[in-house]
Amino acid sequence: MSKTIATTITEYNKLQSKNIQQICDFLEEQIHKNLKKSESKIWHGSPVWFIEGNPIVAYSVRKGDKVSLMFFSGQSFEEEDLKPEGKFKAAEILYTDLREIKVARLKRWLTKAKDIQWDYKNIVKRKGLLKKVAV
């Protein structure tokens, strides 16, 4: 049996269980609302938002019915609810229920995502070296 692969964020969300789809739909709506100048697409299998080609925020569904909301530069936000993810500057928070999302906190993080950026789009060209983007 082949696994369905989403080509749009709407398709990605619809492939999820009802509870997880509610979280994904809400995150998509809030991200679009607060990052108006961003572009979005499915990238490496997950919904990702970019500003001028630089990845800013993403969410993905994890095992155990969890949604990871990840900010590519999140470790620089100095927010205790965001936990380091990976070997660069990313940080995430996990959600299992829509009621866990605190809208004011999410808006603050999305504002920081616009203002605090590390240059991921040129990381290959710089051989793994991240530099801060002058915003």
Give a description of the structure.
This protein has a six-stranded antiparallel sheet, with helices on one face. With 135 residues, it is α+β, with helices and mostly antiparallel strands. The longest helix has 17 residues, at 18-34. Helix content is 27%, strand content 24%. The protein has one domain (9-115): Aspartate Aminotransferase, domain 1 (Alpha-Beta Complex), CATH 3.90.1150. Strand 3 and strand 4 (66-71) form a beta hairpin.
User: Roughly how much helix do the residues carry, as a percent range?
Assistant: 25-40%
CATH structural architecture: Alpha-Beta Complex
Please state roughly what percent of the residues sit in beta strands, choosing from under 5%, 5-15%, 15-25%, 25-35%, 35-45% or over 45%.
15-25%
Any idea what the shape is? globular
N-to-C order of helices and strands: HHEEEEEEH
Arithmetic mean pLDDT: 90
Level-1 CATH class name: Alpha Beta
| Beta strands, count | 6
Strand order of the largest sheet: 1-2-3-4-6-5
What are the segments in which pLDDT stays under 50 over at least 5 consecutive residues?
none
Instruction: Label the structural class.
Output: alpha+beta
Radius of gyration: 15 Å
According to CATH, the fold-level topology is Aspartate Aminotransferase, domain 1
> How many independent structural domains?
1
Please give the alpha-carbon distance between the first and last residues.
46 Å
Number of helices: 3
Major beta-sheet overview: 6 strands, antiparallel
